[in-house]
Structure formats: C-alpha cells, structure tokens
Design a protein that fits this description.
Number of domains: 1
Strand content: 5-15%
Radius of gyration: 18 Å
Strand order of the largest sheet: 3-2-1-4-5-6-7
CATH class: Alpha Beta
Shape: globular
Oligomer: single chain
CATH architecture: 3-Layer(aba) Sandwich
Number of helices: 7
Largest sheet: 7 strands, parallel
Structural class: alpha/beta
Number of strands: 7
Distance between the termini: 40 Å
CATH topology: Rossmann fold
Length: 260
Amino acid sequence: MTTTNRYPFEGKTVIVTGAGSGIGRAIARAFLSNGANVVAAGRRVHDLNETISGFEDARAIAIATDMGVRSEVQALVSQSVERFGSLDVFVSNAGAYAGGDITELTDESWAAVKATNIDGLVFSAQAALPHLVTSGGNLVAVSSVSGLRGDWGQAAYNATKGAVNVLVQSLALDYGTRGVRINAVAPAFTQTPMSAGVGSSEAALAPFNNRIAIGRPAVPEDIAPAVLFLASADAAYITGAILPVDGGTSASTGQPHITG
C-alpha cells in the first residue's frame, strides 16, 4: 500500500499517463492497491509492464501512447473504455522538461515540452470528459509549483505548467454542473528518474532542501496519496483546486533558510 487510508476504488477504471516511472508509476500502483482497474499509459511498454507487475492481469493493462498525438490519446481512452466498460478517473501525469536560457530554446525543445505538457492535457480532456460526464468521474492533472511562480533557467517549462493550472481551473468551471470535478496537484522538486541528474549528491540537494520546510525532497510516494484523495469521494466538494504537495516549498517568500 502506498496510501495510509483505504479508498473504495473497486470496480472503478483509472487511466494514468506517464505511468512508466516516477510519480506516474507510484500513482498507478496506488490506485491498483486500492482496488481500481488501471490503464498505465506511456511511450515505453516495457516500463509500463514493470509498473503493473504483481497485480492481477484482469485489472491492469499497459497501452503505449504518445500524449502529444491526438489520435493516440483518443485510442487510449477508447481502448480503456472498451476493456473495462467505463472511465471514472483520468490522471494526466505525463510531463516533459525544457531548461536553459530562453534565447537558447530550440524549436524542437519548445514543441516537445508543449506537446506533452499542454497538448497532452487538452487532448486528454477532449477524449476523456464525455466519459467522465457519463460516470460522474473526475480528472486530476499533475502540475508543478513551477506553474505557480517563476524559476531561474526554466521559463519554457514554467510557462507550460502555468497553462496547465489555468486550464484545470477553466475546465472545472465548465464541467462542475455536469458532475465532473477537475483538480491538480503541484509537486516541487521530486526525486524521480527525470530529476536524477539534479539530485545526484547531498551537495547538489542542499539548495533544494534549504527551500523545503520539511527538509527533504519528495519521492513519488509522497505525491500519489494526494492524487487518490482528490479522485475520491472525500473530495466531492473540491474542484478547480491546484493543491501544492511540496513539503512547504511554496510557503516561503524565497529567502534562504539561515540557521545559527
């Protein structure tokens, strides 16, 4: 179990994108541990199969999907509904990163980060929302505290995550009276394969830890329970929320933690 509480997701169908590693893997396994049928989506089937290994074949499938391609996202949703009969939760977790000075951002890098972070969510909403209206389900996006404020050297990434946050809020307004809740979690620095090069040593982690009230970076298992909560009936009156799951990072004014 990756959650302390037990959520009644038995018989519910959940799609998790970017489920091959990191936060997406933790989310997919948390839903499976709480009884859901889970469709693990991502680009590498081998990694997706690792995510769902150890769970019943009847409740877990892997579907290779490029979230930046509309037809593949539509096929993902259609195949999931065909397999399990409905769609109750869509977790839009797949993400891409682009860093560096804006003047050095290539067209290819900008297109790639937009395709996954923005287009992927738009395509997911277009494909999933009709089914979520039918089931009275919900969508949870994995955004970032980098979509709430600026960071040095990652303007492109922050811009896409800011778009995710406002898109979530706008969709929540459009679909609230149709019975669909739409929320996001906003992690800060999280130790995943994507960030492995950044936090490769204690010295490298020190600047991050200095900004985190809890004093350590997140691991994927810190993020997954918040997603399950937002997707559960316990959050029935929560929609349009961007929930920081950041160890207190966004509580700071930005000044360094000085001790002694």
